[in-house]
Amino acid sequence: MQHLIAPSLLSADFARLGEELRRAEDAGADWHHVDVMDGHFVPNLTIGPPVVESLARAATRPLDVHLMITDPWQYADAFLDAGAAGLTFHAEVFGNGDVGALIAQIQARGKRAGVVVNPATPLAPILPWLDAVDMVLIMSVVPGFGGQSFMGEVLDKVRALRGEHGFTKDIEMDGGISRDTVGECAEAGCNVFVAGSALFGAEDMAAEIGLFREKIGAGHPR
Ligand code: DX5
Ligand code: ZN
Active-site residue among 30, 35, 64, 170? Predict the structure, then answer.
């Protein structure tokens, strides 16, 4: 299974986003992780479709857009139009719309659809959608801000997905991932690793990504 590193632009310098994209790509990023927050699902406000559109023009790597928003049904098309390669939306908002329809809507446009669970949310709400989605994102911090500590207890959900649920598609982990925690994520069965502060805060991002890949332990296919 391919191991992918997705630096989170939330920790980039927003005044220099184009240069920061380039820095991540030059350092060997596989995807760009874009954190969208609506000030409602989470207390923070971040990036909207116009910024994603500019990012998409500058990027040569896929934009992995993480929707921490209450109404992904309202905004999915806007982010897809803007150039997102994939959208992930949260199990905690499944009650606000038709989950299967949103997954189908994203995939009908040739884009990747993923579902996300917060640390306190069990796997139960996403189990009916495992066949439909391209990816599951397991949050290893309470979403809203970068730079928080990794919550190792969520690794049990990864193990359950790979084990009893037989999930063979991408499992992404997001929150508190660093050289010290990426190894245990990989060991549990994750293959897509988001990191904001640990990568954008690194003096030498390429060296840090190299260290991540070493800890992940599998030869990188690129
Ligand atoms: C948290 C966001 C993360 C965040 C991770 O709400 O979803 O993507 O950028 O940042 P670090 O890696 O600093 O925990
Ligand atoms: Zn994220």
Answer: 35
Question: Domain of 69: which CATH number?
Answer: 3.20.20.70
Residue 207 is part of which domain span?
Answer: 4-219
pLDDT confidence band for 218 (50 / 70 / 90): low
* Domains in the chain, number: 1
Cα-to-centroid distance, 157 and ligand 2 (Å): 17
What's the CA-to-centroid distance between 129 and ligand 2, angstroms? 20
- pTM score: 0.97
- Mean pLDDT, the chain, as a whole number? 97
Q: What is the pLDDT of residue 1?
A: 85
> Taking the alpha carbons of 55, 41, 94, 151 in that order, is the dihedral positive or negative?
positive
Alpha-carbon distances of 216 from 10, 143, 177, 186, 208, rounded to whole Å:
23, 24, 12, 6, 12
64 lines ligand 1 (CB under 6 A): no
